[in-house]
Automatic annotation (TrEMBL):
InterPro entries: HDOD, RNase_Y/CdgJ
Superkingdom: Bacteria
Domain HDOD: 13-210
Native organism: Sulfurimonas aquatica
Name this protein carries in UniProt: HDOD domain-containing protein
PROSITE patterns named in the record: HDOD
Signal peptide start and end residues: none
Lineage: Bacteria, Pseudomonadati, Campylobacterota, Epsilonproteobacteria, Campylobacterales
Pfam families: HDOD
PANTHER family given in the database record: CYCLIC DI-GMP PHOSPHODIESTERASE CDGJ, PTHR33525
Amino acid sequence: MGFESIVERVKAIPPLPASVVKMEELYARGNPELKKLVKIVEEDPVLTANILAAVNSPLYSFSHNVITVHQAVTLFGMSSVRGFVLSSAKKSTFDLDMSPYGITNEEFQNISTLQSMLMFQWYMSIDVEKANLLVPIAFLMDIGQIIIAKEVSQSDYKDEFTRMIQEEASISQTEKLFTGMSSAEVTALLFEHWNFNETFVEIIRNSDEPSLADREYQQYCEAVDVVKTCINIQNKISDKSFKNSKLKALSYGFKVDRYIKTVERIRDKANL
């Protein structure tokens, strides 16, 4: 088991659902019209149900239920709904077992939701255009961990892997030690398999080490690194992870006052 086995697992993953492919084709032609995006989602009853369940999560604390896709787009914006669509595809494509990482499947889904919330609320106040790209990525940034978890669960080293993760060793270094790839690299491989655009692939591939990214992708990679430093399978906005993410944000040249306010707001809402 290892690198070659991971690659074979990715190759065996089925194509994205037709509705997701249609949506990504819309985005490949530029920013789509709202009504076209809504139409694609509404034509898929399962996708519609998954999105409405996601947006009505207690984490968002709306006083009234969101009952239509159009409402969801109006409240969350097209980039977030794109993220919800991609997240729905993640749920329908994979048989989750996140026990090798020492967390439940529900905890994994909650982490993904918190990551996307932080990226959306933080980056929309910095650069709306960049946020439109970063928010969908945030929904999927740790999808490679699903594949690594599958690999580890069928190995002889599951207990040792879990022990190291729970001891808060570096997540990416632990993944590489046991499988030859970090989850960011696996996610990039999966994005290529699904024919996502090159920008998606390069941002996630270099998110562990943004300094290695091409200049055009570097700020995106830095934003992803900040978010996953703050919220990950080991820490959900703990004091330690919050502090480390602030230090990274500072080192990357971000204005941290907006970031701090966003994190504190999410902590309060999620009771963290």
